[in-house]
Specification:
Blueprint (H helix, E strand, L loop, with lengths): L10 H6 L19 H6 L3 E8 L2 E8 L9 E6 L5 E2 L2 E2 L6 E7 L3 H14 L7 E6 L13 E6 L10 E3 L6 H8 L1 H4 L4 E3 L24 H8 L10 E4 H9 L4 E10 L1 E5 L15 E4 L4 H10 L9 E4 L3 H9 L5 E5 H9 L3 E5 L2 E7 L5 H20 L14 H4 L12 E3 L5 H14 L7 H9 L1
Parallel strand pairs: 9-10, 14-15, 14-16
Antiparallel strand pairs: 1-2, 1-6, 2-3, 3-7, 4-5, 7-8, 11-18, 12-18, 12-19, 13-16, 13-17
Length: 452
């Protein structure tokens, strides 16, 4: 891995890492070597903007020496275009809308936005760039490259890469140190809904079942987790299942390990895992605490004696634990650290794996940039954890801030830069199917029925 870069790095490195990169068909070894700056300033790239039905295409033509000639490189807005060898097949009946000369990398972004603003923008998911690599600093060194650039459907402008934090420190460190910008990400943070949700009870004070969780959030968001997110996290069981159903794409080159536990109040008579037989444990439906509680208790109890209460999000489970509405509650990550500091006792450890997911239309190349930034942040956290724990306050709901001293927390979730292998994926799927966890009516319908 190259040294971690910050936003104050050399201008050329930042330019080469810009989120919008035009990748040309791979050049022969004898072709001249151009830097990104030299190529775009040469003015040898023209872009035709054409439309056909619900699609818009940018067809790039240029000449680098004698090797590139009139070969076309195509950028297609839309998801139904046939592709061959990394370049989309453009039909002759596509109407030309405009022509732009591109002299700088960022002009490509402007050209797309201008064209879309000049006409009614079609319902598009993103811009797909197909092709090979330039012999240029910061560009692909041959082979093929495919990336997707998000488009705001309302304005037609390039969308930011949306990051959904997960209650951990690494994203906040990468933001603070400028690692995302150094990788060329034009990004934004968009928090999930977990911290806002509280434990729900009926008029009698009984906890209401919430039959919707991480898997359903991905299912309803088509790979987005609840809110729009180009990258998000959930337990590896839910992400694996969403991936198996082609709801989104599971990132397989890294994962996260989170601490967790089944917790009880300090004055609880429950002392051992066996004491939890036939006692309700608060978990989130089809979410990490659901799966990991079963996994943690099976060595101690028959499955029939494991009783789960589907309470909702992680902070909702903190609520029902603090309010003594359930005998035990299963929590992980920052919620686990919170209950531990509030004096709750851990009956059994529930450490488990978390996986990353991104929806269709998100560029894998942008996910790689995000991951490189997290890798730098993980090293910072390992080296000087005390410098960064204050970022936990960004993830703690207002209702608990005065009761917690985040300086006493551990480092929490850890990003592991090892592959989530095919064997691991297969084992996870087998574990899920053996227990029939998803062998129920559609979860969305179940949640609607519960609401009625």
């Amino acid at each position: 891995m190259p040294p971690c870069r910050t936003a104050s790095g050399p201008l050329m490195k930042r330019l080469a890492a810009t989120p919008v990169t035009l990748a040309l068909l791979a050049l022969p070894a004898a072709a001249p070597t151009w830097t990104a700056d030299e190529y775009f300033k040469s003015g040898r790239l023209w872009v035709d903007v054409r439309a056909y039905g619900a699609h818009v295409a940018l067809i790039g033509k240029g000449n680098v020496g004698d090797s590139f000639g009139a070969t076309q490189n195509t950028i297609v807005l839309g998801s139904d275009c046939t592709t061959m060898a990394g370049a989309a097949i453009i039909r002759p009946e596509w109407k030309q809308l405009a022509r732009r000369r591109i002299t700088r990398p960022r002009r490509l972004r402007r050209a797309i936005s201008e064209v879309l603003e000049e006409r009614e923008a079609p319902e598009i998911r993103g811009v797909t760039v197909g092709g090979g690599g330039l012999h240029a600093d910061g560009f692909a060194q041959g082979g093929t490259l495919a990336t997707t650039i998000g488009i705001n459907r309302r304005t037609g402008r390039m969308a930011k890469f949306t990051i959904q934090p997960h209650g951990r420190l690494q994203e906040w460190i990468a933001h603070d140190k400028g690692y995302f910008h150094a990788e060329g990400l034009d990004y934004e943070f968009r928090g999930g809904l977990s911290a806002e949700r509280t434990g729900q009870v009926d008029a009698s004070g009984k906890v209401i079942d919430v039959l919707s969780g991480a898997f359903e959030a991905y299912q309803q968001g088509r790979g987005n987790k609840g809110v729009k997110s180009d990258i998000s996290c959930a337990c590896h069981w839910a992400v694996s299942q969403a991936s198996a159903r082609q709801i989104g794409t599971m990132w397989r080159n890294s994962y996260v390990v989170t601490p967790g536990g089944i917790m009880v109040p300090p004055d609880s008579p429950i002392r051992t895992p066996e004491d939890l037989a036939d006692r309700e444990v608060a978990v989130g439906y089809h979410s990490g605490s659901h799966f990991t509680t079963i996994q943690a208790l099976e060595p101690f109890l028959d499955r029939a004696r494991i009783k789960l209460k589907f309470v909702g999000s992680s902070w909702a489970r903190v609520d029902v634990g603090v309010e003594r509405r359930v005998p035990a509650t299963s929590v992980w990550g920052i919620a686990y650290l919170a209950l531990d500091q509030l004096g709750f006792r851990k009956i059994v450890d529930t450490t488990f794996m978390i996986a990353f997911m991104f929806p269709g239309g998100t560029a894998p190349a942008d996910v790689e940039k995000y991951m490189r930034a997290l890798k730098c942040a993980q090293m910072d956290l390992d080296l000087e954890p005390e410098r960064y724990k204050h970022f936990y306050l960004n993830e703690v709901p207002d209702r608990y801030r005065s009761a917690l001293d985040v300086r006493r927390f551990s480092t929490g979730e850890r990003v592991v830069f090892l592959p989530y292998s095919d064997e691991t994926y297969a084992k996870t799927q087998a574990w899920i199917h053996e227990r029939g966890i998803f062998d129920t009516p559609d979860s969305t319908e179940a949640a609607s029925a519960a609401a009625r």
